[in-house]
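Input record (one chain):
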Amino acid sequence: MSENGKFQPVIVGFLCNWCSYRAADLAGISRLGYPASLRDIRIMCSGRLDPAFVLHALQSGADGVLIMGCHPGECHYHEGNYKALRRVRLLKRVLRQMGLEDDRVQLHWASAAEGALFAETVQKMADRLKELGPLHWPDNIKDMEDRIAHAKELAEREEAE
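The corresponding structure, as predicted from the sequence alone:
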């Protein structure tokens, strides 16, 4: 909740060091407005994000997780964003199996020069999460540890393929 009593979703953002993290910097320098409830975490590549970190963020109080990386074909690590795409598809399937809305986890692309796109993406995600309402993970999810372990196992299997 915010000061005025309206729900303000907490978004954890895992941002690629080379593109989307720099787009966030550009958005800030350009004074583009986007929700202050974004908690950004810089990662070297979206393809290196462990799905367990996403589940941990949701379990720890985030209402949604935004993953942003370089545009497909422009990854500094060649194919990291394709790996991220596969992992997020799998993660969304796991979230649906857990009874959660898969819109709570989103994957988007933004180059370092796309500060406006970054700000717009964060705003759209915040608006969607406002529609969904607070997550309340402990109230909605039973036997969390087992489900997280299962999700991690699925992701590891998918990555091995």
